[in-house]
Amino acid sequence: MQLESYISDLLYRYDCVTVPGFGAFLTNRVSAKVHESTSTFYPPKKVLSFNEQLQSNDGLLANYIAEIEKIPYNNALHKVSKQVRSIKSYLIEGETIQFENIGELILNSDGKIVFDPSNHINYLTDAFGLGHYTSSAVSREAYKETVEKLEATTPIVMTPEKRSNTNWLKYAAAAVLVLGLGGYFGYNYYNTSIENHNQIAQEEANAKLDAKVQEATFVISNPLPAATLSLEKQSGNYHIVAGAFRVEANSVKKVNQLKAKGYKARTIGVNRYGLHEVVYASYETRAEAQRALYNIRKTHNRDAWLLIKKLD
Q1: CB of 306 within 8 A of CB of 239?
Q2: CATH fold of 238-308, please?
Q3: Segment 249-266, tens digit of pLDDT
Q4: Which end of the chain is more exposed for a tag (fewer CB within 10 A), N or C?
Q5: What Cα–Cα distance (Å) separates residue 119 from each residue in 94, 215, 252?
């Protein structure tokens, strides 16, 4: 039994997953952050931790295993206990236990379990598809400070220019006035001519169009029967997510690829981070969705996960 696979499934939806007789894996949500020295942006995520003192059985893990493997609850609880005994024996022998996508467990010199979480997966479903990225540093130039320094050291002095003869300015002003009046009247005449021409052309076109419409006769002697399409509408609040895409065209492409493989794929809208979510299918009950998720992970996509969301 792959115990870490069941624990990993539950960490997407619950903040605490207890392994009876062993300890509990806890998640704590942290906000997005920026590493100033490397200019790297990290999305929000769930940080994993382990508490060895929380060993009481809350039924979550055993019920989930019983539902997935279709076995009685007591049998599932017995399998967990057997797996825990095996893990503890390996830890006592000094070996490191590797839980895939969760982290490593090892005993320290005091006999306490030390947990080193894995950073390969983000269990925060709201941040699905978001990864970290590094931005180049922004260089800013202080032009304003440079100008202020120059003005302080080099004052600007305005010296009026002396002119001996200003008679030619009078003639120039008169010429500008004459040219302006002539251009104004010419421009009005040109616009009036253009409007008259356009109006005549429009009236001729309307007359020809009316004549064509009156001559045309449309007769459908054998009309086609009305087509009736029967479309299957998916419903349910349990969705198996195939991926989330920043570009909508990529989500449409993913839907077409999944439909070609026989899945009832579709998009279910945009999440809070602006990503277009694509699902394999939607289901009415949790049990039906869990069975489908198990098959999809086994045959097509190990990273598929179950989203519980009521669609409008």
Answers
A1: yes
A2: Alpha-Beta Plaits (3.30.70)
A3: 999 999 999 999 999 999
A4: C
A5: 24, 76, 30
